[in-house]
Amino acid sequence: MGSTRLPGKILRRIHTKTLLEHILFRLSRLRSNATTVVATTSLPKDDPVEAFCRERGVACFRGSEKNVLDRYYRCAKHYGFTQIVRLTSDNPFTDIEELDRLIELHLNNTNDYSHSISWLPVGVGAEIFTFAALEKSVLEGHRPHHLEHVNEYMLENPDKFKTGILEIRGPKNRPDVRLTVDTEEDYRKVCYIAEAARGEFVSTEEAIDLCLRFA
Question: What is the pTM of this model?
Answer without folding.
Answer: 0.94
